[in-house]
Request: fold
Amino acid sequence: MSVLRPGRPVKRTRIATDRAEAALVTQYTALVRLAYLTLPAALSRHRRVLLAHGAAQRALPGARGALVPRPRGPQDGDTLTRDALRVRVLRAALSAAHRPAGWPGALPPPRTLVPRLPVVWGLRLFPHAGGPEEIALGQALADPPAPTRAAFVLRRVDGLPDKRVAALLEAAGVPDGSASVLAAAELDAAAGAAAEALLRSQEFDACSVQSRPTDLVRRGRRKRAVWVTGAAVAVALAAVIVPQSTDGSGQPTTAARAATPRYLSADRLVRTAPGQWADTSRVDFTAWPARGDRKDDKDLLSRALGTWAAPTTDVRVTSTPGTPVDAPPRSPQLLYAGDVGGRAVVLFSDGERLARYTDADGDSPAALDLARADDADVTSAAVVVLARSKGSARYLTAPWVAESTTRDLLRPDSPARPLHVSGDGVTDTVPVVAAGNCQRRPVLQLRSSSRIVEHHAFVVADLGGLSPVHLTYTPLPGHGTPPARQPREATSSQALLAWARSACRLGSWAGGGVRAVNAWDFAEQDLPEGGGHAVWMCARASTWRGPGDVAMLLRTPTTSLTTPAELVGQARNTAACSRFGQHVVASTRWKSPKDHWYLVAAGSRAVVGITASGAVDSARPGRTLAVRAPEDGTVRVTARLSGEAGGEQLSEVGAAGR
Reply:
C-alpha cells in the first residue's frame, strides 16, 4: 500500500509480462545499481548485492502482468514499462530501510533478514574496490536517507528530469518526492561534475562483483539441518532473527557462539608489542599495545567478539554516520580490556573502525559503539573515550602521550591543569558538557613523547564520539598575497583567544562523526564609525567520511574574552575552508556605534575585489567592503580572485539571502 501525499489520486496501470521482461533484460544493470545505492548503507556490501539483485528480479510481474502506480505525465509504452520497473525496484529497496515501530536499531529491518532468492551459500560477494574518488562519493552517499540516494541516482545516472523523478518516488511510496529531489540536487552539487562517471564505475556496479569464501573450517564442521515440519522451520527462523546473546549469567549462549565466525576468537586477536609505537613510522591505532587488567580474560573477550559479530535485541548498538555495523572482516586488534566505573569495557580496532563493547551491569544492558578510525594519526589516534557517566568521562590515552592536562576553552587566560593517568593509560574522570550548555568547554591538552616528536602539544575536544576531535588554528594571512598558511596546534595564546570566541559552536557538531575542527582567521577589517577592529573566521568541522561543515563567524570588539562570535553563514558538505577550498568570502549586516546599518564583507587572501548587488549596489577593490545599507533587503555578495588564483568570481559561503 502506497504512503502517498493525502489528497493526490494514484493512477494505476497494468504492465505486460513480455514487455516488462524485455525491458528488465536491457535495463537490468541500471535497476540493480538503483537498488544497491538506495539500500541502507549500514548493511554489508554482500547483503546489499543480493538484495539489489532480488529487487530487480522480483520487479518482473507474473503471467497476468501487474498493477503498479503510474507516475504522472504522458508516457509512451516503453517509457511506462521502464518507469513501472523502477517503481517496483524502489519499493523493494525502500522497504529494506523501514523498521516497524519498536524494532531494535541493532538489527536490520525484518524483511532483509528473511532469506529470499538469490541466495549464495559459502561465498561473500561485493563490488570491486574503487579509487579515492569513488570511496569519497560512497561515503557521501552513506548519510542521506534512502529516497535522496534514489533521486540522486535517477537524476545522475538515468538522466531523468526532476518532475519525473519526484513522480517515481511518490509512486514508490515516498511521501514527498519533491523534497527528496531538492536534497538530491544539493548532494549533486557537492559531489561535482564527475559524479556520473563515478556512479558508473565498478565500485557501484553490483553486477560486476568479486567473491570470497566464508569461514571454510566452521562451514565444513556444520551439520546439515533437518527440516521436519513447517512449524520447526518457523521456530528456527525466529531463532535466527532474534537470537539471545547471553543466558542471563553473562555467558554467550550456544546460538550466539554459532553466529560468531571462527576467526573471531579470543586466541586470534591481534596484539601489538608494548614498545612498537616508538619504533614505527606509522603512529596510529596499529601501534597501540593491548592494555587493561582483563586483556587475557577469554570469556570477556569472546563475549565482546560475539556481540560485534551478531548484536542482538538485548544490546544497545550505536554508530557514527557512515560507519558500517557489520562484523569485522578479519580478527581485530585488541586495544584494551578492563573494568571502568564498575563495568567491563573492551576496545577493538579492525583497521577501519573502533569498536567499544561495554558489558551489561544490573539494569544497564550491554552496549556496542562503532566509529570510523581509518587514516588516524598521532593526534586523532591519541585518545579514546572508555566510559561516560553523570556528566563526566574517562579516556584511554595512546602510549605515546607523555603528558595529559585539561583546560577550559572559555577561560583562555587560565593555565592547563594536570590530569592523572594510570599505568594502563586510563585517565581520571573529566567533566563533559551537557547539550546546550556553554558555561564551560573542557578539553584535553596532550603532549607527545619526545621519542616520536619534540615539543608537540595538541588539543582535543569530546563531542560525544569514541574519539575526541582534534582542534587546530590557522592565523591571519600576512600582507599582500602570501602563501596559504597551514593549520597549527591550538595551543598558543593567539589560538586560545580565537577559540574562546568560537568554542560554543562545537556543540552543534556533536555526534556527527567529526574528526577535526579548524578555526581559520581568513580576514581582518577596521569597522566604520569607530567600530573597532574585527576578525573574520571560518570554523570547519571535517568528518572521518571526508565531507565537512563550515560556520562563518565575525569577531567584533567586546569587553569579554568569551563573547560568542556572530554567526554570519554556514554550509554543509562543502570543501570550503579546506585545502581544496582556500578562497572564501562572507558578509553580514552590522550596526555601528552611531546606530547606522552597514553591509560589511571580507574575503580570503586571493580576493582582489568585492561586489554587492540587490538592496545594496556597490563594488570595492581589495579584500574588504563596508557600505551603508538598509537593515532589511536581499543582498548578493560576490568576490573576484586575483589572476594568479584564476581570476574567477567567488560566491559567498553559507549566504542566507541577506
